[in-house]
Amino acid sequence: MTTSSHPAPRGPVIAGLGMTDMGKIYGRSPAGFAADAVRRAADDAGLALADLDGLLTSSGVLGGVGLDLQKDLGLKDLRLLSEVQAYGSTAGAMVQYASMAVRSGLAEAVACVFADAPLKEKTSSGAAYARAAGASGWRGLMAAAGIMGANPLYALAARRHMDTYGTTSEQLAHIAVAQRAWAATNPRAQLRDPITVDDHQASRMIAEPFHLLDCCLVTNGGIAVIVTTAERAAHLRRPPVHLLGWAQSHPGYPMHQGSDFGLVSGAAQAGPAALKMAGVSLGDVDVAELYDCYTFTVLLTLEDYGFCAKGEGGSFAASGALAPGGSLPVNTGGGQLSSYYMWGMTPLSEAVLQARGEAGERQVPRHDVVLVSGNGGILDHHSTLVLSPHPHA
Fold first, then answer.
1. How many Å apart are CA 166 and CA 110, to the nearest integer?
2. d(Cα 383, Cα 251) in Å, to the nearest integer?
3. Residue of 87, 294, 340, 341 marked catalytic
4. If 0-12 CB within 10 Å is exposed, 13-18 middle and 19+ buried, where does residue 141 land?
5. What count of other Cβ atoms lies within 10 Å of the Cβ of residue 256?
6. C-alpha closest to that of 225 among 100, 96, 138, 340
7. What is the pLDDT of residue 127?
């Protein structure tokens, strides 16, 4: 990758990262986590809250973070303020909108924040999201048939891929095992004990073909990033992470015969578009931080980005390529399967740390190009970011 030491003055960068305590943290609201995350991100960048003139907010399915966060933070005279919702692809989308805002001059420093607090004491993780799974109208018929929440719908997608290409549960297990190996060196990870393919296969079935270890965690907490210009970041506290490329795709698949549901995701469009904007190729990518609500989501994204051929994601994962020491470091913090579940902020936060060279024991030596994905709905929405410690050539 060819880089330049003279970035365009209004080239967008991530200049601050704020992460609250995460996991089974009780007694705090999503709005409280969000405000804490923004304060931490501003401090990380070396900015005062008053320096922010843009705020984009997002919260989990239970809500609680909105426009009133401006008042909670005491921000005045904002030039950009909005709630953004594209589910797991929202973090990538927020950063894209913030990047366009600072590049155009609409704003100078935009905080993008996600927070959620679904976990309650003495309540199971599954019950935390069951409260948001109610349905009315024709969707109520699906609920009456037992198809409630994301688990069975993603399971249908995975089963279609298996039936089409011969993908196996054991191959999905290799993704979970690799990410747990990365999580073992991440102090923030909720789950750090090593697991094996046999452990995966022995874990209880959630929605066939998904075992428990195919499914992401549930987490309370908040994460924020500050997007500003390269010119301004040159005088701030942290090394800037340059936003070289970005794209979105929203396939809108109807879940009926004839669609590509479960076979192709929005990554197939958003990935190449973001890389083209960045002026890099897939071969330039050193690290991939991929949205992993399920192991299957990682497999499908790897295929759709082009890291392996369609239908070969399972064998690629089983080869050991994704694990520490493999040819393609993927989800180097443990991802949402083993580390923490903050929607699209999970892969984005790890990408920022890797691009800065601040990931500690799990730091990947080569991190010139970091690819980040977000996935929302039931493969309905996708966002891609291309990050680098270096500006555009």
1. 45
2. 12
3. 341
4. exposed
5. 7
6. 96
7. 64
Paired sense of beta strands 80-83 and 54-59, if any: parallel
Residue 317 φ/ψ, nearest 5 degrees: -65, -40
Which two structure tokens, joined as six digits, stand for 221?
Answer: 């907490």
Q: Which one, of 39, 42, 35, lies nearest residue 72 by Cα? A: 35
Q: Please state, in angstroms and as integers, the Cα–Cα distance from residue 125 to each residue in 17, 140, 298, following that order.
A: 27, 23, 22
Q: Which of 129, 253, 291, 294 is catalytic?
A: 291
In degrees rounded to 5, what are phi and psi of residue 46?
85, 30
Could you say which DSSP state residue 341 is in? Answer: -
Q: How many residues does the chain have?
A: 393
294 catalytic per annotation: no
Say what the pLDDT of residue 258 is: 83
Contact (Cβ atoms closer than 8 angstroms) between residue 101 and residue 108? no
Please give the C-alpha separations between residue 307 and each of 126, 244, 301, 302, 371, in angstroms, as whole numbers.
33, 20, 9, 5, 12
Quote the CA–CA distance of 14 and 354 in Å, as a whole number.
13
C-alpha to C-alpha distance for 321 and 328, rounded to whole angstroms: 5
Annotation says 129 is catalytic: no
Return d(Cα 288, Cα 326) in angstroms, integer. Answer: 12
Task: List own/partner pairs for 263-266 with CB under 8 A and 24 or more apart.
Answer: 263/160, 263/161, 263/164, 263/310, 264/300, 264/304, 264/310, 265/300, 265/301, 265/304, 265/375, 265/379, 265/382, 266/89, 266/304, 266/375, 266/379, 266/380, 266/381, 266/382
The pTM score is: 0.95
- Residues 371 and 286 sit within 8 Å (Cβ to Cβ): no
Q: Which segments in the chain show pLDDT lower than 50?
A: 3, 5
